[in-house]
Design goal:
- The protein is α/β, with parallel strands linked by helices and 485 residues long.
- It folds into two domains: 385 residues, Alkaline Phosphatase, subunit A (3-Layer(aba) Sandwich), CATH 3.40.720.10; 93 residues, 2-Layer Sandwich (Arylsulfatase, C-terminal domain).
- Helix content is 27%, strand content 16%.
- It contains 14 helices and 13 strands.
- Strands 1, 2, 3, 4, 5, 6, 7, 8 and 9 form a nine-stranded mixed beta sheet that branches.
- It starts with a strand and ends in a 28-residue tail after the last helix.
Length: 485
């Protein structure tokens, strides 16, 4: 029988928040073990770092230019010919998704046999004044209905925390087993019980956390709240003033946040990650009990990161490492695929590589629509094989709309509305403290990356490039026109 395949997705986890990468405080023993059982990718990126476009690339293997999702926009139908789950289903796998999907319509199966859904807040389905009954969260969200069945009246907003606040926190107020993180694990264990034993399975466990609200169970918050936490990175180019007091908002994306509020948010964020890690450990134990652990390929990744105060910035959707760089681990506990266990790869990989990698691991054909590449050869041959020269990332984000080019060792950023540029030497400056744009010794490298972006954007409908130079000030679009056609 072919191997089982497990995709563990988390939401908004920074790449550096792994203890195996020597984070000064974060503890992730189970993820560390997955890395020891496989390969840890040190330069994995979310090309379009927010939930909708990143997950479109995960579920289709396509670049953002091919999915048409180059920013965040809800309620755009998902009509793709080939999907990750669909290919596994067609290959006679039993397919199941549990947790966050963030597709539209909300109950779109995207190729899975079944979806047990918790998307988090999902604004359009929470706003009762403009929601159609069929799309209301009460009808679409399985976790919310389960929670109300357990408690009577509990709701997602009982803690008073917003779904996009990266600065305000409060520990979970109910029993730990009622937390959405535990629920994803509980439902996944139940899938092991009721799956078809005559078929291999493809399971997508998709946790909403550590995306806000920052609501870890008290026991995990207590692990971090009294520790000396690392200060956020602060580059010489970053804004130092906040005359409007934007940092005081509970849902700020930038600004000067009160010091103790920020420290509590850091503690809660790290606590949510360790909570997820323990729940992953719980599921790995269950896999051993059901006899499937050693015949399952496991890929762990996040859709994007969290800035968490770096450069006085918060949340995601920006090109900096805290937002765009993500954890990415491919594990093979049974050592069936011939991976170089307990190894690391520094080649640049991204969300679109997940689909071809997992299909390759299961010896399933990769559709022609896929733009990504299987990382399996990197896990066997490592640095000796050719690989892509760079990743092109972008996000329509109002006046801060941007494009970036990176190979994980250096990064060129172009802000499309005002033409501002930045260049970082990530090997010597991984925290992006110094913008090298005006440094003479880097001009050749900057020009090379700028020209790569010119070619990437040539012919795009926004008009950002004429094939010879970049053109600032064009209107950004979160979704390209062809998606609606």
């Amino acid at each position: 029988m072919k191997p089982n395949v497990l995709l563990i997705m988390v939401d908004q986890m920074r790449a550096d928040c792994l203890s195996i990468l020597d984070h000064p405080v974060v503890d992730t023993p189970n993820l560390d073990q997955l890395a020891r059982d496989g390969v840890l990718f040190e330069n994995a990126y979310s090309a379009t770092p927010s939930c909708v476009p990143a997950r479109a690339s995960v579920l289709t293997g396509m670049s953002q230019a091919s999915t048409g999702r180059v920013g965040y926009q809800d309620k755009v139908p998902w009509n793709y010919e080939h999907t990750l789950a669909g290919e596994f289903t067609n290959a006679d796998y039993h397919t199941q998704a549990i947790g966050k999907m963030h597709v539209y319509p909300t109950r779109n199966l995207t190729g899975f046999h079944n979806v047990v859904l918790h998307d988090g807040y999902m604004h359009y389905s929470r706003f009762k004044h403009n929601t159609k009954t069929i799309e209301s969260q009460e009808y679409t969200d399985d976790y919310l209905n389960w929670l109300r069945g357990k408690t009577g009246q509990a709701d997602l907003i009982d803690l008073g925390l917003d779904c996009n606040s990266s600065t305000v926190t409060r520990p979970w107020h109910l029993a730990e087993e009622l937390h959405p993180t535990n629920w994803v694990t509980t439902e996944s264990i139940d899938f092991l019980r009721r799956r078809d034993p005559t078929k291999p399975f493809f399971l997508n466990m998709s946790y909403v956390r550590p995306h806000p609200p920052f609501d870890p169970p008290q026991v995990f918050y207590d692990m971090y709240k009294d520790l000396e936490l690392p200060d956020p990175s602060f580059g010489g180019w970053a804004e130092t003033e906040d005359t409007s007091g934007e940092g005081m908002s509970p849902v700020t994306a930038k600004g000067l946040v009160p010091k103790m509020r920020l420290k509590r948010a850091q503690a809660a964020y790290y606590a949510l990650i360790t909570h997820i890690d323990h729940q992953i450990g719980r599921f790995l134990n269950a896999m051993q009990e059901f006899g499937v652990y050693h015949n399952t390929v496991i890929l762990f990744a996040s859709d994007h990161g969290e800035l968490l105060g770096d450069h006085n910035l918060f949340r995601k959707s920006l090109p900096y490492e805290g937002s765009a760089k993500v954890p990415f681990i491919l594990a093979d506990p049974g050592n069936n695929l011939g991976l170089k266990e307990n190894s690391r790869v520094d080649k640049a990989v991204e969300m679109r590589d997940i689909m071809p990698t997992l299909l390759d691991a299961a010896d399933i054909g990769i559709p022609d629509t896929v733009d990504g590449k299987s990382v399996m050869p990197l896990c066997k041959d490592g640095e000796d094989m050719p690989w892509r020269e760079y990743i092109h990332g972008e996000h329509a984000f109002g006046e801060k709309s941007f494009h970036y080019i990176t190979d994980g060792k250096e990064k060129y950023i172009w802000f499309s509305q005002n033409g501002e540029e930045q260049f970082f030497d990530l090997e010597n400056d991984p925290q992006e403290m110094t913008n090298l744009l005006k440094v003479v010794d880097y001009q050749e490298r900057i020009e090379k990356r700028r020209n790569q972006l010119v070619k990437e954007l040539e012919g795009r409908e926004e008009g950002y490039s004429d094939g010879k130079s970049l053109i600032a000030g064009r209107t950004p679009k979160p979704t390209l026109r062809f998606v609606f056609e």
